[in-house]
Design a protein that fits this description.
17% strand; single chain; 249 residues; alpha/beta; binds NADP nicotinamide-adenine-dinucleotide phosphate; seven-stranded parallel β-sheet
Length: 249
């Protein structure tokens, strides 16, 4: 028996990278997974990878109506949520002088506002004893040039994990965050940088990582399932770094 047999697990941003790896890991351990995202081709790919037991729901976390539709669909299909992995996120890099209001709004709306209202709208469905996991970032602990808005959005999320953990104590719902280091995912192609700049960034980051390698989505997924499982029954309000020592050594 897997740790998530018959548990209902909802994953935002589950159509690629860390979210899809987590969906596979939860499903392997018996969960009924619901994954969301926006891109039709990666949603179709996720549907193929996860098989017919998974529910794939196109959802833009910045759109209130999409979130309402998502949770109505989950209510109709499963009637409850046991684990919410609020993972959808974006990253665009620019120095403060080069940050437009549109870029600022897109990042904050996705990473913080999106996660906040995902949780708010999921709360009526969350079962007693359930778990919420957020995806923050190593940027919360480091002042990396060019990341001012992404870092602030993730710091807001990290703080939200604490207050939410307090508010949900009476319902025995634990709230934690995983903080990935540098992980090889499609995110690097979405930064708004040229291929050459991505390569250069990768080399620069590699020098900073004590483990001398990037993480894999599967390594992050293992930490997510741990925090969501009863193995972490006495853990709430924490941010777990999964980063090859990047923020600790
Ligand atoms: N990779 C890293 O090095 C790293 C480091 C620290 C933190 N993180 C965090 O890890 C999380 C997962 O990222 P990843 O690395 O796995 O990259 P990814 O493959 O690009 O995953 C991001 C996911 O978020 C979804 N998403 C973005 N905007 C959305 C929106 N408005 N509505 C709904 N879904 C949206 C994407 O779906 P669509 O493609 O369909 O939009 C995608 O499924 C993010 O929160 C990211 O900030 C990643």
């Amino acid at each position: 028996m897997g740790r998530f047999t018959n548990k209902v697990v909802v994953i935002t941003g589950g159509n690629g990278g860390i979210g899809l790896a987590a969906a596979q890991e939860f499903a392997r351990e018996g969960a009924k997974v619901v994954v969301t995202g926006r891109n039709p081709s990666s949603l179709a790919e996720a549907e193929k990878v996860l098989g017919p037991d998974a529910l794939v729901v196109p959802t833009d976390v910045t759109k209130s109506a999409d979130l309402d539709d998502l949770f109505q669909t989950v209510r109709d299909r499963h009637g409850r949520i046991d684990v919410l992995f609020a993972n959808a996120g974006t990253a665009k890099l620019a120095p403060v002088e080069g940050t437009s209001e549109a870029m600022f709004d897109e990042i904050i709306n996705t990473n913080f506002r999106g996660a906040y209202f995902t949780v708010q709208k999921a709360l009526p469905l969350l079962s007693e004893g359930g778990a919420i996991v957020f995806t923050t970032s190593w940027f919360v602990q480091a002042g990396v040039a060019g990341t001012s808005v992404v870092s602030a959005s993730k710091a807001a999320l990290r703080n939200f994990a604490r207050t939410l953990a307090s508010e949900l104590l009476p319902r025995k719902i634990r709230v934690n965050a995983i903080s990935p280091g540098v992980v090889e995912t499609p995110l690097f192609g979405k930064l708004g940088l040229s291929e050459a700049s991505v390569q250069e960034l990768g080399q620069h980051l590699m020098q900073r990582i004590p483990a001398k390698r990037f993480g894999t989505p599967e390594e992050i997924a293992k930490a997510v399932t741990f925090l969501a499982s009863d193995d972490a029954s006495y853990i709430t309000g924490v941010e777990l770094a999964v980063d090859g020592g990047l923020t600790q050594l």
